[in-house]
User: What shape does this take?
Amino acid sequence: MKRRFLNQVRILALLLVFLQLTTLTVHGQGGGPSDDEVNAVASQLYCPVCENVPLDVCPTQACEQWRATIREKLALGWTESEIKGYFVEQYGARVLATPPAEGLNWLVYILPPLALVGGAFVLVRAVKTWQSNPEVEPVTSSSADDDPYLAQFEEELRRRDA
Amino acid sequence: MTDGEPTNDAPQTGEKRPAARRWGVIAAFVFVIALLVLLGLGLRRTTQGPLGVDDQVPDLTLTTFDEGDIHFNDLRGQVVVVNFWASWCKPCEGEALELEQAYQMYRDEDVLFLGVDYVDTEPEARQYLERFDITYPNGPDLGTRISQAFRIRGVPETYVIGPDGRLAAVKIGPYVSLEEIVGQIETALAQ
Assistant: This one.
């Protein structure tokens, strides 16, 4: 009877410890969005003040404020695209790491593949041309008729041989 | 017919090929030149610098923090002081009080002050306005449209628009004194 009671106490104690650990973990996370979640959105944005520095690694006060805004929006349940849309509305499309596919921005998406295909086409054509003309044209020997100096030289040689 | 003689159709394909190749080369050149023109226009815009004195100010709309819309074209006939600032901008703090003082000095005349909050977050911007007791209309630069139209390089920058809608004075960086602000407003009023 006593042993059974002790076992029950042990199980209860273990459950309490488990409950305590779980509570501590949740408390440690603070309930709000984690830094990783904030940075996942921030890495897709650029602050116009600090050009070429992604928002997740930008050290300025302006960027800190922006990251706080992202955290606030995430806590309110906003999705990633809603947050990005908000930033575009507030600060313009240039804050996006990937420009939207519209207007002249299309060039960014079209030109690299076009250049790649064009380059491959030129390369294939060049290789085909080389393959269809494998024989190297023999170097045409200069004829003495064309070159008066050579003609004179050959004449001189013939005279010496004679 | 000997081996070396060309066939009848050979010259035809020979003529078509150079023509097609020529058009291909022309198209490639036109494409490259168009790209270079685009690049040049972009470069010219980025190196143009901010609007200067006598430049016409485009029609812009500032949506204030109080949700009111102010259209620049509706302000013709008045002197308008457009100040670009941000809550994270330390030099802006140095001129904030003087700007408010100047606004109070000229509020009964045809001089309007507008604060354009550049790349900022609203709670901090509102705190900044409260901290410096700024009472003239202020609003965020939504989509950075106003700062792009003025081609500003940073904050603070202030543009004084004359009654004719052209720029009368420009201040890049913070004002160092109230007198400096007054001097620019008087220049605009004298126009």
Residues 1-10 of chain B have pLDDT under 50 and may be disordered. The helical segments of chain B are 10-46, 90-106, 122-131, 145-150, 178-189.
